[in-house]
Design brief:
The chain is an alpha/beta fold. It is built from twelve helices and 17 strands. The protein is globular.
Length: 395
C-alpha cells in the first residue's frame, strides 16, 4: 500500500479526531522508525512516551510471543500468573502496597478519583468529594478527567461535565490552600506537567503539599501516566521528590507498546476499592502483563542511571547552541521540553524537523517536547540533535 492509498483509507473509514503528520510508519528497530518507503526517522517521541524499550527489543518480543502462545486472555474472574508477578514488582520497587490494572491513562486516573471519593465517603460520609488539581494540568479525555484537567481549553463541547473539581492557579501552597474547604477529599497533581509544557513542580512545594494533605486527611494523588516507568530516571517520579503518595497512576511505557495502565495504592488505601466497586475487562491482560515484566526487568539501576545521563546530554547539548528561537530547556530524565520564545512559529519548526526525518512532540503553547525511547543510543540522539540544531539555529 502506498502512502496516498493509506491516507485515503484513513480519511474514508476513520473518524478524523487526530491531526496526523504526513508520515506513515511501517516498522521500527531500536529507536529508529521506518515509513512505507523505508525512510528512517529518529524517534524522539516514542508513541507519546509509550515505546519505552523502542522497537523490536528482543526481551520484549520474546515475552509477548511466549505468553501469546500460552494464554492471551482469561478475565479477572480467574487468577493468572503474569499480573500477580507484575503487581509484586511494582509494589516492591515503588514502596506502594497494592495494584489495580487498567488499559489507559485516563481510565487509571478515573480509578484514583473513585478511590479518593470512596475513601472519604467510607470515613466521613457524603459531602466530602471535591478534588483540587493544578492549573496547566492534564489528566485525560474522559468526561471526568477532562474536568479534572486544569486547562479551560478542554472544558468545552461535552456538557455537562462531572462536578467536584477546583483548580489551584499557582503551583504553591497558597494557591492550593485558597481552594480548600469542607468538601475537599484529595489533591491530584502531575510532578511534571507534560501536556502543560514539561513543567516540573518545585520539590519543596510537593513535600509541603504531602505534609498538608496528611494533616487534613486528604489523599495525595499523583498522576504518573507520563512521568512513570523510568521516564524521569527513577521507576516513578515521586521517588525523586521524597514522598510516598496515597495513590498514583501509571500507563504509557509500562508495557512497551501494548495497552496497559493502572493504579498503585499505599497501605492506607489498599483496601478502599472492594469487589464490585471497580473493574475493567482487559485489566491485567496476560500478554500485556508479560510485556510489562520484560520492561521492568530491563529497567534496572544501571539503566536508570543511563536514562539520567542521556537526558542531561540532550538538555546540555540544546542549551549549548544558544539558539535564537529558544527561551529555555527544562525537564527530567528523558522527558525534555525545549521552550520557544514568544512569537516563534512552533508549527513551522516542528514541520521542518519532520522534514529532516526526526519525530518530535509539542506541549503547552510553545514547547517542543522530546520523549525518546529509554533505550535510545548516543548515535541516534546525535542524529536527531543534528536535525534539531539545523532547524532551531536556522541553518
Amino acid at each position: 500500500m502506498t502512502f496516498e492509498e493509506l491516507k485515503a483509507l484513513d480519511h474514508q473509514y476513520t473518524m478524523q479526531t487526530y491531526g496526523r503528520f504526513d508520515v506513515a510508519l511501517d516498522h521500527g528497530e531500536g529507536s529508529t522508525l521506518y515509513d512505507l518507503e523505508g525512510q528512517p526517522y529518529v524517534d524522539f517521541a516514542s508513541g507519546i512516551g509509550v515505546a519505552s524499550l523502542g522497537y523490536s527489543h528482543p526481551a520484549w518480543v520474546q515475552a509477548v510471543e511466549a505468553q501469546s502462545k500460552k494464554l492471551a486472555h482469561a478475565s479477572n474472574l480467574f487468577y493468572t500468573e503474569p499480573y500477580a508477578k507484575l503487581a509484586r514488582q511494582l509494589c516492591l520497587r515503588s514502596g506502594m502496597s497494592a495494584a489495580f490494572f487498567a488499559n489507559g491513562g485516563g481510565e487509571a486516573n478515573e480509578g484514583i478519583i473513585k478511590l479518593a471519593r470512596k475513601y472519604s465517603f467510607d470515613k466521613y460520609g457524603k459531602g466530602r468529594a471535591t478534588i483540587i488539581t493544578l492549573h496547566n494540568s492534564f489528566h485525560g479525555r474522559t468526561i471526568t478527567t477532562l474536568q479534572a484537567t486544569g486547562q479551560d481549553v478542554f472544558h468545552n463541547y461535552f456538557f455537562p461535565f462531572t462536578e467536584g473539581f477546583r483548580y489551584a492557579e499557582t503551583p504553591d501552597m497558597a494557591g492550593v490552600q485558597a481552594q480548600d474547604g469542607a468538601d475537599v477529599c484529595a489533591v491530584m497533581i502531575e510532578l511534571i506537567q507534560g501536556e502543560g509544557g514539561v513543567l516540573p513542580l518545585d520539590k519543596g512545594f510537593v513535600q509541603a503539599l504531602a505534609d498538608w494533605c496528611a494533616s487534613k486527611d486528604y489523599l495525595l494523588l499523583v498522576d504518573e501516566v507520563q512521568t512513570g516507568i523510568g521516564r524521569t530516571g527513577s521507576l516513578f517520579c515521586f521517588q525523586q521528590y521524597g514522598i510516598l503518595p496515597d495513590a498514583c497512576t501509571f500507563a504509557k511505557g509500562i508495557a512497551g507498546g501494548l495497552p496497559m495502565a493502572g493504579v498503585l495504592a499505599n497501605e492506607k488505601c489498599r483496601n478502599v476499592l472492594t469487589p464490585g466497586t471497580h473493574a475493567t475487562t482487559f485489566g491485567g491482560n496476560p500478554v500485556a502483563a508479560a510485556a510489562a515484566l520484560a520492561v521492568l526487568d530491563t529497567l534496572d539501576d544501571a539503566m536508570m542511571a543511563q536514562i539520567n545521563e542521556k537526558g542531561q546530554y540532550l538538555m546540555d547539548t540544546v542549551r549549548s547552541w544558544n539558539a535564537p528561537c529558544v527561551e529555555t530547556v527544562r525537564g527530567m530524565g528523558l522527558m525534555v521540553g525545549i521552550v520557544l520564545k514568544d512569537g516563534v512559529d512552533r508549527s513551522a519548526l516542528v514541520s521542518a524537523v519532520y522534514d529532516r526525518h526526526v519525530l518530535v512532540l509539542t506541549a503547552g503553547p510553545k514547547t517542543i517536547r522530546l520523549l525518546p525511547p529509554l533505550v535510545i543510543t548516543k548515535e541516534e540522539m546525535d542524529t536527531g540533535l543534528a536535525a534539531l540544531h539545523a532547524v532551531l539555529c536556522g541553518e
